């Protein structure tokens, strides 16, 4: 077993079982490369990123399957020339067909706004994709804004021995729409009316520090016609747009608070899920993603929020092929 496979196995064991630091260190000591030992946390972070991608994007409406690829490849020296990408994903088209894409998953940490990749690595992944005759996409997680973009490598700039793309350019050229990562347009202010009580309620999810337990939540686009929503639906919206309190009244044991959103919003579905789960302090795992996605879909549907497909601004040949495959029946 090579060192990369050993690191992946150690990571998976740590995720699945409670093991002591001593046992973990014994396993790490069996990695031959000192460089890989010193950078093992970077490998762990990469594997965690791949886990988030598969749980998040597998729950998008047009994703049929996300399949992690076993990156053990032999002979080992073949990696110098050809490299297996991280995942294979299938998306459903408007013609009810299933199409594949290969996905290489990357993370841009801390406050960086540009990702740089060695040209040697990109060429090795591209060669695999070319031989397999499957398009290759890069799934990039931008930690600064807690968002993902899906990009064709054609949008990367080649400088010396590196390919790089900025956060701004990655946003412009994103093609995550093929998986159903739609953009929602909140072009009106949203009003939220919440009734609270300090009397303990059954099955309450949230408690306001000043007002108490949530009794009922309502939303409106005109501050007149309110519709009732669940606590999770209300939180799904409230964790993605800023609300400001405009009135607070009390009658007996019930406090009624009316809030208004700050401005218009363009929000991608996957970003809404991530922000919702982050505020709920939930891991990005399938059950939680599904819960959040259902809550978001529910509240946006009740408000009749408009949705739109966002295509790459400067579509490459591969972009146009994927868009044609995905949306030939509706474009």
Polypeptide structure, described:
- The protein has 331 residues and is of the alpha+beta class.
- It has ten helices and 17 strands.
- Helix 7 (231-238) crosses helix 8, helix 7 crosses helix 9 and helix 8 packs across helix 9.
- The mean pLDDT is 91.
Rg over C-alpha atoms, rounded to the nearest angstrom: 23 Å
> Can you tell me the overall shape?
globular
Distance between the termini: 49 Å
Instruction: Give the topology string: H per helix, E per strand.
Output: HHHHEEEEHEEEEHEEEEEHEEEHHEH
Major β-sheet profile: 6 strands, antiparallel
Average pLDDT score: 91
Number of helical regions: 10
- Spans of 5+ residues with little confidence (pLDDT < 50)? none
Fraction of residues in helix: 25-40%
Short summary:
The protein is of the alpha+beta class and 331 residues long. The protein is built from ten helices and 17 strands. The chain is 34% helix and 30% strand.
Spell out the key features of this protein.
331 residues; six-stranded antiparallel β-sheet; five-stranded mixed β-sheet; globular
Give the topology:
Elements: H1 3-16, H2 21-29, H3 34-38, H4 40-57, E1 63-68, E2 87-92, E3 98-108, E4 114-118, H5 119-132, E5 136-142, E6 147-152, E7 157-159, E8 162-166, H6 167-172, E9 183-186, E10 191-197, E11 207-208, E12 212-220, E13 227-229, H7 231-238, E14 243-251, E15 254-261, E16 265-268, H8 269-280, H9 286-302, E17 306-308, H10 317-327
Parallel strand pairs: 3-5
Antiparallel strand pairs: 1-2, 2-3, 4-8, 5-6, 7-8, 9-16, 9-17, 10-12, 10-15, 11-12, 12-13, 14-15
């Amino acid at each position: 077993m090579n060192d990369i496979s050993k690191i992946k196995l150690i990571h998976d064991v740590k995720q699945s079982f409670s093991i002591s630091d001593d046992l973990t260190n014994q396993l790490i000591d069996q990695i031959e490369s000192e460089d890989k030992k010193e950078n093992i946390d970077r490998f762990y972070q990469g594997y965690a990123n791949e886990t988030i991608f598969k749980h998040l994007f597998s729950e998008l409406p047009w994703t049929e399957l996300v399949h992690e690829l076993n990156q053990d490849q032999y002979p080992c020296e073949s990696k110098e020339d050809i490299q297996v990408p991280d995942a294979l994903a299938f998306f459903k088209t408007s013609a009810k067909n299933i199409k594949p894409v290969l996905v290489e998953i990357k993370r841009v940490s801390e406050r960086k706004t540009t990702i740089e990749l060695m040209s040697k690595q990109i060429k090795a992944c591209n060669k695999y994709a070319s031989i397999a005759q499957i398009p290759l996409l890069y799934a990039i997680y931008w930690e600064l804004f807690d968002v993902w973009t899906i990009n064709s490598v054609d949008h990367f700039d080649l400088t010396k021995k590196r390919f790089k793309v900025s956060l701004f350019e990655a946003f412009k050229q994103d093609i995550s729409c093929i998986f159903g990562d739609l953009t929602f347009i909140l072009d009106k202010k949203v009003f939220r009316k919440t009734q609270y009580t300090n009397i303990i309620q059954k099955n309450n999810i949230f408690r306001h520090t000043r007002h108490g337990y949530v009794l009922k939540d309502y939303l409106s686009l005109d501050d007149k016609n309110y519709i009732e929503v669940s606590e999770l639906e209300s939180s799904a919206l409230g964790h993605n747009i800023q609300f400001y309190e405009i009135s607070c009244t009390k009658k007996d044991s019930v406090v009624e608070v009316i809030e208004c959103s700050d401005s218009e919003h363009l929000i991608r579905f996957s970003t809404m899920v991530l922000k919702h789960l982050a505020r709920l302090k939930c891991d990005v795992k399938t059950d939680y993603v599904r819960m959040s996605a259902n809550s978001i879909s529910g509240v946006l549907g009740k408000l009749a929020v408009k949705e739109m497909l966002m295509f790459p601004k400067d579509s490459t040949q591969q972009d146009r092929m994927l868009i044609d495959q995905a949306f030939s029946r509706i474009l």
